[in-house]
Amino acid sequence: xxxxxxxxxxxxxxxxxxxxxxxxxxxxxxxxxxxxxxxxxxxxxxxxxxxxxxxxxxxxxxxxxxxxxxxxxxxxxxxxxxxxxxxxxxxxxxxxxxxxxxxxxxxxxxxxxxxxxxxxxxxxxxxxxxxxxxxxxxxxxxxxxxxxxxxxxxxxxxxxx
Length: 161
Prior knowledge:
CATH topology: Jelly Rolls
Largest sheet: 9 strands, antiparallel
Order of helices and strands: HEEEEEEEEEH
Number of helices: 2
Radius of gyration: 22 Å
Structural class: alpha+beta
Number of strands: 9
Helix content: 10-25%
Number of domains: 1
């Protein structure tokens, strides 16, 4: 009986250690000097870098920076887009809703498949968290899907202010 209790105790300790070891994950931190690059399929005036995850495959966090007046024309994402402003000012418009003005420390969440556009009123830095792949579908003013080349044709020089 005594050896059986000892074996049960030992098994419990080993399993507890194994469970803790498999759950242990290191905290992830990045520095402010991450290199921002052009984001394919986005306006040239917008730069970004992936901080966590793979935006092409699933949930991710990206750091982005846009020049003053840079506009991402009407579009929608298949994933929910959460925008957290770090610096600058931006304007977010979601179809059939009032525009939202963002300042440093502001946050907006745009549900998946909601048509929106985004503009940096002043040079802006932000973090974007998505709960799925970061794909973008551009649409015209009527909401019809259009080619990226058509959507991005000189649009960034016309800020929505």
